[in-house]
Amino acid sequence: MPHTRPYHSIVLVKQVPDTRNVTGEVMTKDGTMNRSALPAIFNPEDLNALEMALDFKDRHGGTLTVLSMGPLQAAEVLRDSLCRGADQVILLSDRKFAGADTQATSYTLKCAIDKIGPYDLVFCGRQAIDGDTAQVGPQVAEKLGVPQITYAESIIEADEAGIVVQRAFDLGTELVKCTLPCLLTVVGSANQPRPASARKRIEYKLAAVPAEYPGLLQKWPEFGSEELLDKHLTERNLKITVWSAADLKVDESQLGLAGSPTQVHKVSYVVLETSESKDIPATPEGVQALIQELIKEYIVG
Ligand SMILES: Cc1cc2nc3c(=O)[nH]c(=O)nc-3n(C[C@H](O)[C@H](O)[C@H](O)COP(=O)(O)OP(=O)(O)OC[C@H]3O[C@@H](n4cnc5c(N)ncnc54)[C@H](O)[C@@H]3O)c2cc1C
Question: Would you tell me the crossing angle of helices 102-116 and 136-144 to the nearest 10 degrees?
């Protein structure tokens, strides 16, 4: 039996420092990472989560809201989400959210989802490449009181009874049937995220959070004032909604650092310096010598 009302999906996305290419320059003397020295990127598996939600919308219709908690610069991943096909985007940004561990992060996201209202599916990445805990998805599901399917690879079918999802695990895959609403954590092997469309890039070029208005006015002084710019963007659904703690029904003692039972004490990254690398000639002899060395070092064999 087909689903009665239009589906509504929510996708949780995070802007992260690109920790895949940490070089010595990024490390500070005390072994911590200078995150601002790294380019900020869309968390890779969140792109897979967004792609799965967009594919679901293509096949079953409905609308798609993207939600991110982070500093104002995180508006960039929301603009990108609009250019890939999201209908609505919301940024959760407030100094009170800063320093949040997964407990506080998932609580804040849960309160924002409560404010967004009825939904059928929540999609999130399996893991963020900076904290790497893979905890937020399951914690959000727990707090929402909805079932969760982790390591989701594809949605096989959907109807009034719910969805059937293929999930990946080390030895293969399994099919899981689940009622709605439910939360999915999506793996990187699930799909190839579609690129942002050129037409939407033009359409959403001006999409902005109010804090970005001064910069836009410098580029386009013809808008005259922030008020007129705000009116222009609002009328064209280009104003990115920003929610602070005051916009949510929250217990502030559960937010940010205050609401975080865990704090990152120190992070030590293994940075491979060039001195430790070795050029292996692409010859049978070169490969042979490498194998001998690996055997001698008890790394293989
Ligand atoms: C090196 C390091 C280690 C850390 N260790 C811990 C720890 O052991 N315990 C702990 O509680 N905290 C830890 N943190 C803090 C943790 O990173 C933050 O709480 C973070 O907001 C969420 O955890 P995560 O990055 O592991 O995300 P994950 O749980 O890996 O994220 C899974 C998915 O949840 C969604 N999601 C996560 N964060 C957001 C967001 N801000 N906005 C929207 N969607 C989001 C995304 O879809 C993401 O793919 C650590 C941080 C760092 C940098």
Answer: 50
DSSP classification of residue 115: H
Q: How many CB atoms lie within 10 A of CB 224?
A: 11
Span 222-256, pLDDT tens digits: 999 999 999 999 999 999 999 999 999 999 999 99
As a whole number of Å, the end-to-end CA separation of the chain is: 57
Query: Which ranges constitute the DSSP H helices of the chain?
Result: 44-60, 75-84, 102-116, 136-144, 198-203, 213-219, 226-235, 284-296
Homologous superfamily (CATH) of 8-259 is: HUPs (3.40.50.620)
Residues 6+ apart with CB under 8 A from 65: 8, 9, 10, 11, 86, 87, 88, 89, 90, 116, 119
**Best of 18, 90, 135 to mutate for ligand 1, by most ligand atoms within 8 A of CB?**
135
Q: Given this model, what pLDDT does residue 33 score?
A: 60
Dist. CA 128 → ligand 1 center (Å): 6
For residue range 14-68, what is the model confidence (pLDDT) as tens digits? 999 887 766 555 656 665 566 677 889 999 999 999 999 999 999 999 999 999 9
Domain extents in the chain: 8-259
Q: Which residues' Cβ are closer than 6 Å to ligand 1? A: 12-14, 43, 45-46, 49, 68-70, 100-103, 105, 109, 124-125, 127-128, 130-137, 262, 264, 267
Q: Which atom of ligand 1 is nearest to the CA of 130?
A: 53
> Which residue stretches of 152-246 are H helix?
198-203, 213-219, 226-235
pTM of the model: 0.88
In tens, the pLDDT along 272-283 reads 555 667 788 999
